[in-house]
Amino acid sequence: MVQYTLAQSPEVILSVSGKDSQKARERAMDQLIELMDAGELPTALSDGFGPHQLIEVKEPHPTPNLKQQEDAVVEAVQALSHLANLKMKLQDSRKVAMEARELVDLLFTDEPMSEEQLGSIKDGFKVLKSFAQQNLRYREARSRAEAARQVLDRALHPNLQDS
Questions:
Q1: Is 45 helix (H, G, I), strand (E, B) or coil?
Q2: 163: pLDDT confidence band, cut at 50, 70 and 90?
Q3: C-alpha dihedral sign at 13, 24, 8, 36
Q4: CB 8, CB 53: distance < 8 Å
Q5: In this predicted structure, what is the pLDDT of residue 62?
Q6: Are 42 and 27 in contact (CB under 8 A)?
Q7: Which of 18, 33, 76, 120 could form a disulfide bond with 148, CB atoms 3.0-4.6 angstroms apart?
Q8: CB of 2 within 8 A of CB of 18?
Q9: The organism sits in which domain of life (predicted)?
């Protein structure tokens, strides 16, 4: 898609498919003539106005600083999303892990344990290990997400000062 405007009326934008070419400029001229015939063109064009006088409108490229800020926002949202996923996993496995943790306490008593309890505790070690690893990852992600939250807050409320 290419867009053109007129020096006499920069608010008029003519959009045509394709790249800037003689054919695209001619299609834009057709649109311009339709606007003139409909009385929608706010300015009069001199005789001899041609496709070569159309001005191509180019999208401004973001400044490097803006690009860095946009990248920081994307990274911040990803960090917060990662934290949310870890928190969900942690909450889902917490109950089972705490039940397994109670069985660990039985190992330190002089009371005999049943075969069922011993089997459960062996299975519980895997659950405890997984839960503990998820918890460590969650804590690490949470500290990174704090900084991400500040980046996002600055982007959402640009008048906020860093504190």
A1: coil
A2: very low
A3: negative
A4: no
A5: 64
A6: no
A7: 76
A8: yes
A9: Bacteria
Domain ranges, ordered by start, for the chain: 2-57, 64-156
pLDDT at 40: 83
**Quick one: residue 39, left, alpha or beta (phi over 0 = left, psi -120 to 50 = alpha)?**
left
Task: For residue 57, give Cα distances in angstroms to 1, 13, 47, 54, 110.
Answer: 11, 8, 23, 9, 83
pLDDT band at 161 (very low <50, low <70, confident <90, very high): low
Q: Which two tokens stand for residue 101?
A: 């943790």
Q: How far apart are CA 141 and CA 81, in angstroms?
A: 10
Mean pLDDT for 49-60 is 85
DSSP 12: -
Residues 6+ apart with CB under 8 A from 52: 25
Residue range 16-29: average pLDDT? 92
Rounded to whole angstroms, how far apart are CA atoms 126 and 38? 76
pLDDT at 26: 93
